[in-house]
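Hey,

Quick one before I head out. I ran the complex with zinc ion overnight. Inputs first:
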Amino acid sequence: MKRYSLLIGVLAAVGVAAAAYAVQAQKAPAAKATPAEARAFLTRAQARLLELWAKADRASWVQSTYITDDTEQIAAEAQKDVIAAATDLALDARRFDGLKLPADTARKLELLKLALTLPAPADPRKQAELTRIAASLEGDYGKGKYCPEGPQGKCYSLNDLENIMAQSRDPDQLLMAWRGWHSISPPMRQRYQRFVELANEGARTLGFADMGALWRSKYDMPPEQFSAEVERLWQQVRPLYEALHTYVRARLIRKYGKAAERPDGLIPAHLLGNMWAQQWDNIYPLVEPPGSATGYDLTELLKAKNVTPLEMVRYGERFFTSLGFDPLPKGFWERSMFTKPRDRDVVCHASAWDVDQVEDLRLKMCIEIKGEDLVTIHHELGHNFYQRAYSTLPPLYRDSANDGFHEAIGDTIALSVTPAYLNKIGLLAQAPKEGSELGELMMRALDKVAFLPFGLLIDQWRWKVFSGQIKPADYNKTWWELRKKYQGVAPPLERSEADFDPGAKYHVPANVPYTRYFLADILQFQFHRGLCRAAGHQGPLHRCSIYANAAAGAKLRQVLEMGKSQPWPEALKALTGEDRMDATAILDYFAPLKKWLDEQNRRPVTSDK
Ligand code: X8Z
Ligand code: ZN
């Protein structure tokens, strides 16, 4: 797919039988057809889509890097053209339903039927209305600023507020930043409601019950089975998350006292170092296991070296080239946006693009010199190297095995950014210390384990919003019910239906499905385990780095080059030997930390080190 983390996902497709689960389509199939006609139809369809995708992506790139009313409108119109064409093609593809076809042709037809992430009604006026709303929601998020009343007239961008959340240890400051950012989304609420109505109408046109049913049909299995898989994985990792939550809560109470302590056991969402309480690594110093310090801070290492944003991207690229991938093309360095422009509004949320789906790769990011951003760069480059690896396949196969794979590749590489690796590339002076294992695992857990319930809950909310089980009058209340249920966090302020807190998270206004990140969080440990095995690594998984390992590189390349040509279990098997998503890899990785957390959690809360 074009851009990973995008306005209106276009491709992203799936399994051979998926559309069979859709409810009856509205458009009746035309005359019977032949396999040769099906092939010719697919050739035309793919050429048409490729052209429209590139046009829409160019418009969308300009919109995201220069937000104005005009660029929003231009991008919306280009998206409308994609959606109109993709809808027509998906309905036309039904002509070949029931025909005996070669597997490859059948798969492409199914992928075509599932190609849209944002479906629209057949009426062109409604298509225009929907794409305008979609563009304006993402635009509003990108433009979002908090300008508190006061003499200075200072405004805070999301980056400013995120830095406060990361660094401040003053509960009042943290509350100011949290409140400030959550004030940008209430104006989205009405439009979001209309957006859901129109997109659902579009989903029904394509034969799905609602937009969520369409999203869940993209995994080479019946949608109900997919929901059950997600639940199974969550139950596998839940005890690990709960152990971390219990420990972190106790440490926060020790640090903040009353401001952190609630009788219901929840953690106030503004104390975890992140605007959405989704990754907690910024509070590592508050929860560091005594006597097991990692001994370094990646941000300080980067600053000490006077590294520039461009050099940070080069570090990421070098990891991939060390595995045997070609360097990024010249156009990448010319067309990407690495830093936040001073003179205009942009969508800072990081994303990776393949505009023409061949060589025109780009990164869009507002890089700051911090460890978190070095990790995000690896994440994004994972998308770009995937995009390039599948670029020679037929257009409908130019996507990841499933969307969790796309999100997992760069993160898998980032798991190899170990102290030994940092030492090897000259960022860290000393090799990893003995006895720092718990510290290293804690750092990683604050990122990866803390994220698990968050990765899950966004779409638990949206699936119910799309199906109508959550009514607009309950948007915010149900959002916080799910945040309590899964993450165990509570709003730091009284909330009401005048708020629209889901809109303060990028992927909701940008309509990017989110379960992919939950899957990726689990898959990346499976991939890491598989690649470390290929590399012949001995010892604990968290000390493995596949940097410069040819065998691991070859295995990874082979899987990326498969794109979406096979059902995802085939790709998983090629990488890991396993054909199911499985959380034992993440559980094994963190096993020593889990044991330690369980011991700590048995001790009374007030006891000290
Ligand atoms: O959105 C992203 C990437 C772009 S695909 C920066 N991520 C999720 C998020 O920020 O919420 C990566 C981690 C989860
Ligand atoms: Zn991503």
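Residues 5-26 have pLDDT under 50 and may be disordered.

Talk tomorrow,
K.
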